[in-house]
Amino acid sequence: MSGSERNHNPAGNNRPETLDCCGGLNNVDYSKMDVTLMEELLKHINFHDSSFCVAVIAIIFNPFFWNVVARWEYRTRQLSRLFGNPYLACYALGFMIILLNVYRSHSMTVAMRAQARWGVMDRTDVFYAGIALMVLGTLLVVSSFLALGFTGTFLGDYFGILMDEKVTGFPFNVTENPMYWGSTANYLGLALIGASPVGLLLTAIVAMAYKVAIRFEGPFTEQIYQQRSQRRKHE
């Protein structure tokens, strides 16, 4: 459904209209939703805990770092000059991103272990749901990496290492950003397995950070390939 499509209430229907996540209108009055569960979840989270703060910083910093560095490389080619060629420069940035993501995962795990478990989540079905999410997340991450390769995964486009054509097979025929959403599924699964309310919140922050990153990366990557297409037309 396009963003311009709307479903209006018929005349005389006095139920409040609210926007859904796709931009359509629905008849749910969110002011009357039961927020008890959310309040209970937040009660189990210590927002002043240093490990929680470190995890939040790591989550936000990572996509900010790689987007800033990759765009700087695209505009200046300084990393390619420093390492002698764009491939070595891309590998160096890729390994740095991997290390940062390992630290992010570590900081989230430390925060989850430092804070209380939640009895509502401490159930067998929730545990196995977490296992299923981690299996799904790992599948998306690994298959995405195999489809794109190292340079395709770690911003090779910004180094001038462009793919011949857009990857449309699995997992990209399931979701447009499988690496990001697979990683998010892994963190959600870990939170469910650990019955961790702080893990749920940190996972939500991961999802929001990725959402912002996608808004910056998607159009910029499209622009890179459009410029290549225009150059080829003039050759």
Could you provide a short overview of the structure?
The protein has helices at residues 36-43, 50-76, 78-83, 86-114, 124-153, 178-193, 197-234, and strands at 18-19, 25-26. The protein has 235 residues and is mainly alpha-helical. The protein folds into two domains: 1-33, no CATH class; 48-234.
Give an overview of the whole structure.
The chain has helices at 36-43, 50-76, 78-83, 86-114, 124-153, 178-193, 197-234; strands at residues 18-19, 25-26. It has 235 residues and is mainly α. It folds into two domains: 1-33, no CATH class; 48-234. A two-stranded antiparallel sheet has the order 1-2. β1 (18-19) and β2 form a beta hairpin. α5 (124-153) runs antiparallel to α6 (178-193).
Structural class: mainly alpha
Unreliable stretches, pLDDT < 50, 5 or more residues?
A: 1-26
Biggest pleated-sheet summary: 2 strands, antiparallel
Task: Determine Rg (CA atoms, Å).
Answer: 21 Å
The termini sit apart by: 39 Å
The order of strands across the largest sheet is 1-2
Count of beta strands: 2
How many structural domains can be distinguished in the coordinates?
Answer: 2
What kind of assembly state do the chains in view correspond to? single chain
SSE topology string: EEHHHHHHH
Q: What is the 3D shape?
A: elongated
Number of H/I helices: 7
Beta-strand fraction estimate: under 5%
Ordered list of secondary-structure elements with their pairings:
Layout: E1 18-19, E2 25-26, H1 36-43, H2 50-76, H3 78-83, H4 86-114, H5 124-153, H6 178-193, H7 197-234
Antiparallel strand pairs: 1-2
Helix pairs in contact: 2-4, 2-7, 4-7, 5-6, 6-7
